[in-house]
Amino acid sequence: MGPHPWIPNSTDEYRRIIMEELGIRSIDELFRDIPEKFRIKRDEWDELEIGFKEPISEYEAWRFIDESLSMNKKLKTIPFLGGGVYPHYVPAVVKHILMRGEFLTSYTPYQAEISVGLMQALFEYQSLMAELLDMDIVNASMYDWGSATGEAFLMSLRVKHGRRKIIIPHTMNPFHRRVAETYLYPHNVSLVEVGVTEKGTVDISELEEKIDGETAAVYLQNPNFLGFIEEDAATIGDIAHKHGALFIMGVYPLSLGFLEAPGNLGADIVVGEGQPLGLYPSFGGPLLGIFAIRNDRKLIRQMPGRLIGLTTTKDGKERAFAMILQTREQHIRREKATSNICTNEALSAIASAVYLSLLGPDGLKKLAETNYYHAHYAEKKLSSLEGVETRIYSGEFFNEFPVRFDDTGREYYEIHKRLLVKGIHGGIYLGNYYSELGESALYAFTEMHTHRDIDLLVDALKDVLSG
After folding, report:
1. 288 and 201, same structural domain?
2. Of the candidates 90, 140, 415, 464, which lies 20 to 30 Å from 306 by C-alpha distance?
3. Reported confidence tier of residue 159, pLDDT bands at 50, 70, 90
4. What share of the chain is helix, strand, coil (3-state, %, to 5)?
5. Residues 154 and 45 in one domain
6. Is the peptide bond before 357 cis (omega within 30 degrees of 0)?
7. DSSP per-residue string spanning 63-128
């Protein structure tokens, strides 16, 4: 009798059959992508010193995990990391609603089994996000900002068929750029970079030199990766449209509490990260990719992901919701599909919908202003430290900015490690992405960072730099 076709099996005979089918000689070959130094050999297992070699009870397992976690070092303040994922306060009601079974168990719903209640929740997400972005159509949804950017670039190539050039700013998030490069790798596309001005924003004159009839799209991140606000976003959009290219904007949605919405700046496609809207950083996930377009039939038909629509019952007496667009590869489209987005972030999208409905326009504005003022308070305090430079660029910034330590005579890695010893997690080292900035780091500040937290950071840096 052969292996059961549906039930997982792990006997030696079944493993042999599977390995023959896969063309491998050992299970270890399945892990060859993992560097050798990070793999645990079977004969090294005892060296992990877990503390037991026999099966243990659930309670014993809980005690072991709890005691292990207690060894973690606790920070004195919220981390000052930013660069795309930020610590924001999540109201308790957001998690409470997400824990409801009708939402929690429908983590990747399809038309056949999706509940009307879940479709209504996703429709509300689309509507709230469309209002925030001032865009006509929002999908539900994408993995994260990086994947949404990659999909937007591929979409621009389909819409502007034959063009093989996309212009990006030097201050594009480098993590998103790497994802986009992976998406574009098989498509023979040129990613052309435009430099920055002394303000830390896009150099428009350089953009005008590099854009041409081969350009499918111009991408602008606002605020950019270094935190600076692109004051000439509308002008950049006009330049893109003048050359027949699409204008794609990447946005930090919380900043739209007081910045102009991308729809008012002429954006054709908008992407962004929904994590700041009701999701915990959670060590980097799950995230939520925002994807929106203006009302254009060519754009709609090439839009990745799925759309939830509102209609009425046949008698016209009740509202009804339906999945109205889903041109994905595992359905009828196959190789003609607009994307490979399979599992979407429905639960994360609902979290953002709940969060936005709780804040409302006034709350979002106050929150954005708080982030802005906390960052500027931090910049003023950090600038008082000897050898620390906080105005590398002169432009206006939102909630994060680069800090340079060249004149301190210290490498930032050393500074960062000594901050950790003091229970403070500093910013992202920028030398790996912007070598021209020297020994610098990107520090972010949100409503979670009180003046006391910022003062603790400044005092800790003062001790580190003087010691």
Report:
1. yes
2. 90
3. very high
4. 45, 15, 45
5. no
6. no
7. HHHHHHHTTSPPPSS-----TT-------HHHHHHHTSHHHHT-SS--TTT--HHHHHHHHHHHHH
Q: Which residues are within 8 A (CB) of 216 and not within 5 positions of it... i.e. 6 or more apart?
A: 156, 157, 159, 160, 163, 164, 165, 166, 189, 245, 246
Q: What total of structural domains would you count in the chain?
A: 3
| Domain region containing 31 | 12-69
- Enter the tokens of residue 48: 């992990």
- Domain identity same for 378 and 293: no
- Copy the structure tokens of residue 352: 């953002």
On whether residue 5 sits in a domain, the answer given is no
pLDDT in tens, 334-371: 677 777 666 668 899 999 999 999 999 999 999 999 99
**Residue 77 located in a structural domain:** no
* pLDDT higher than threshold 70 for residue 405: yes
Quote the tokens at residue 382: 């950090």
Spatial distance between the Cα atoms of 387 and 336, rounded to a whole number of angstroms: 57
Q: For residue 405, which of 423, 385, 421, 432 has the smallest C-alpha distance?
A: 385
pLDDT digits (tens, 9 = 90+) for 107-121: 566 655 566 688 889
Alpha-carbon dihedral sign for residues 260, 344, 108, 95: negative
Tokens 């990745």 belong to 304
- Copy the structure tokens of residue 18: 């599977």
Q: Are 276 and 90 in contact (CB under 8 A)?
A: no
Residue type, 152: A
Is the same domain home to 365 and 349? no
For residue 1, tell me if it sits in a domain. no
Spatial contact of 94 and 351, defined as CB atoms under 8 Å apart: yes
- CA dist 421 and 435 (Å) reads 26
CA-nearest of 229, 173, 117, 213 to 430 is 173
Q: Which two tokens stand for residue 86?
A: 């930020």
The verdict on whether omega for the bond into residue 223 sits within 30 degrees of 0, i.e. cis, is yes
Distance of CA 80 to the CA centre of its chain: 17
CB 122 within 8 A of CB 111: no
Residue where a domain terminates, one of 356, 374, 401: 356
Is 419 in a helix, a strand, or coil? helix
Read off the CATH number of the domain in which 218 is found: 3.40.640.10
